[in-house]
Amino acid sequence: MNSNADSGVKQQSNLARAAEDHSLQRVPDGERQSGWKLALSPISVATALVLFAVGGFSIMLAGFSIGMVSGVVVAIIGVFLGKALGTIGFRTGVSSTVTSRIFGFGQKGSVLGSAIFAFMILGFLALESALLYEGTLVMFSLEDTLMTKVCIYGVLTLAWILLAIFGLKLALRASAIMTTITLLVTVWLIIQIYVVQGTNPLDFFTYEGMVPGNGWAKFQAAFGVMGATAGTIALVTMDFSRYARSDKDVSILAAAGPITQNIIMTVLGGMVTVGAVPQVVDYLLARNAGMSPEEAGAVAGGYVMGNTGAFFVIFAGWLGFLTIYAAQAKAQAINAYSGSLTLVNIVDALTGRRPGRPLMVVVGNVIALIMIAGGILGKFTEWLSYLGAMTFSMAAIMIVDFYIVRRGKYDPSSAKVENWNWAGLITMAIAASVGIALMVTGTFSIGFIISPFVVLIVYPILRKLLPEGTASSYAEANDVFEEAR
Question: Which residue intervals make up region (Disordered) (predicted)?
Answer without folding.
Answer: 1-29
